[in-house]
Write a structure and sequence with these properties.
Strand order of the largest sheet: 1-16-5-7-6-2
Number of helices: 7
Structural class: alpha+beta
Distance between the termini: 29 Å
Strand content: 25-35%
């Protein structure tokens, strides 16, 4: 396993005195019983509670904004597997009060290493390439993204053209710094995400932008469970018109080259039913970590 790292130990000491400002707006409370039922031990694999879904989604939005602004890089698709991986580690950092890419447990007050970052990530995500950014003490998504983007190693992860998928974990509560952030980024062999509007959850316009990964000969598309359109030359980027009814919509694509056919899709909620014109043709502390390995193809699902 190869890796690329950015040493920020001097930055740790220089910024250790920065005050932590905790934003309480939109924070979802977690009951005491739910925390008591969850044990942060071992190398992960369990699902930590969601503390602030809006913060996690906003980081993904900001990541895709900066990727678009730096060489028009393709957007990353937020997926549950990487979100769960990142959320577990963010929660474990606070619960066991440590700061590292590696996973530790406390035994009699002393930290004991359990596993490395990539072993932990593989409990959820069977990657071919992967990376991780972590941070502590930043109060908002904008603050932590500014910290990551000001660090060369973290910026390199965020702007890595080899990544296709992302998950973000946010924890607020215990630990020396009170707030912990984790970004897990990666790609899987045989996975070609379709991404609507840079992975936005909602849109007020039925005309949307679409990015499809891969290098295919032809593609065909459909809205929801409607009829498939005609096969046409493949394009990575194009605009598309959703069905003009409010609610959740799915855009599906079939991609083919020679005898190989692949299916992919994404969903988005339309908040307006206004008629649309047809679309045109088609970090206080900031350690960084990345890795690459070869894995077998996995089944594509519209999550």
């Amino acid at each position: 396993m190869t890796s690329k790292t950015s040493s920020l130990f001097s930055l740790h000491a220089a910024q250790a005195g920065i005050a932590v400002s905790l934003a309480l707006i939109l924070v979802l409370s977690v009951t005491a019983s739910s925390w008591a039922e969850f044990t942060y031990t071992g190398c992960g694999g369990a699902d930590a509670p969601v503390i602030n879904e809006a913060y996690e989604a906003r980081v993904v939005e900001l990541v895709n904004e900066v990727r678009a602004a730096n060489g028009n890089l393709p957007p990353l698709r937020r997926i549950p597997a990487l979100s769960k991986s990142a959320r577990y580690h963010a929660t474990d950092l606070g619960a066991d009060n440590y700061f590292s890419h590696d996973t530790y447990d406390r035994n009699g007050g002393a930290l004991q290493k359990v596993c490395g970052a990539f072993e932990r990530m593989r409990r959820w995500y069977n990657y071919s390439t992967a990376g991780e950014n972590i941070a502590a003490g930043y109060g908002t998504p904008e603050d932590v993204m500014a910290g990551w983007m000001s660090s060369s190693g973290h910026r390199q992860n965020i702007l890595d053209p080899d990544f296709r998928e992302i998950g973000v974990g946010y924890y607020q509560g215990s630990g020396e710094y009170g707030v912990y952030w984790v970004q897990n980024l990666g790609a899987r062999n045989g996975e070609y995400p379709l991404i609507i509007n840079n992975d936005a959850a909602v849109t007020s316009d039925a005309n949307v932008t679409v990015y499809v990964y891969g290098n295919w000969g032809e593609m065909r598309l459909r809205n929801d469970s409607g009829a498939w359109g005609e096969w046409q030359p493949f394009q990575n980027r194009f605009t598309w018109t959703l069905a003009d009814s409010a609610g959740e919509h799915i855009l599906s694509a079939e991609l083919r080259s020679g005898a190989t056919t692949y299916s992919t899709c994404d969903k988005i909620s339309l908040t307006s039913v206004a008629a649309a014109a047809p679309a045109a043709d088609y970090q206080v502390y900031l350690p960084v970590l990345a890795s690459a390995e070869q894995q077998a193809q996995q089944t594509v699902m519209c999550e």
